[in-house]
Q: What sequence folds into this?
């Protein structure tokens, strides 16, 4: 839908509201028309904000189930949104090494610490890390919400040691359909649970893999 058409629709909606306010004589009728005109653009946004608030209070945040060793390494699956970890990943988390597939060739590599804190990268044949970092993002109600879940799991048992959840809200229909199309930007983030997913990927590992 073009921006010009959206502008015409917005002015048409305002004109219709004014026309109804003029036509309706009773004060209670005018109040009803005005209330409905205000609620139509924002009613779903009010509901979705409440739903986000409930999720953030009940489900979002860190949940530590168990602790693991920082010396047994962690494997980054290919589904992690940030892509393959850079060598400085080991400066942000306490683990001795991180294994991962490259973003392009599909080869398996390991960043590992050697003498004097130097980090080297080597190609390996198979994953040896005891833990795995998993990240999944799911859509709810089409493009209204996304929920991101990050986990550190034990690779052998599949048991989660720590979980981080966050919900992202992209606005009611006015924000997504009208404003998004008007600016040609598409849906943009309105609000989340106040959790940084970018730093959360490191913080979750720091909270879970702390044993020697």
A:
């Amino acid at each position: 839908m073009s921006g010009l058409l959206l502008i015409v629709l917005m002015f048409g909606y305002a004109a219709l509201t004014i026309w109804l306010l003029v036509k309706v004589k009773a004060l209670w009728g005018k109040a009803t028309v005005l209330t409905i005109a205000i609620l139509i653009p924002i009613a779903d946004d009010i509901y979705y904000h409440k739903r986000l608030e409930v999720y953030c209070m009940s489900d979002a945040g860190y949940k530590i189930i168990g602790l693991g060793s920082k010396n047994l390494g962690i494997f980054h699956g290919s589904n992690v949104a940030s892509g393959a970890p850079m060598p400085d990943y080991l400066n942000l988390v306490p683990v001795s090494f991180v294994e991962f597939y490259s973003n392009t060739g599909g080869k398996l590599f390991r960043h590992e610490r050697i003498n004097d804190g130097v980090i080297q990268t080597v190609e390996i044949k198979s994953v040896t890390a005891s833990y795995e970092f998993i990240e999944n993002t799911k859509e709810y109600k089409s493009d209204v919400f996304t929920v991101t879940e990050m986990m550190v799991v034990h690779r052998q048992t599949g048991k989660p040691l720590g979980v981080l959840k966050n919900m992202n809200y992209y606005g009611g229909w006015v924000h997504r359909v009208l404003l998004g199309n008007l600016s040609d930007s598409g849906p943009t983030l309105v609000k989340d649970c106040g959790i940084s997913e970018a730093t959360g990927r490191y913080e979750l590992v720091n909270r879970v893999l702390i044993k020697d």
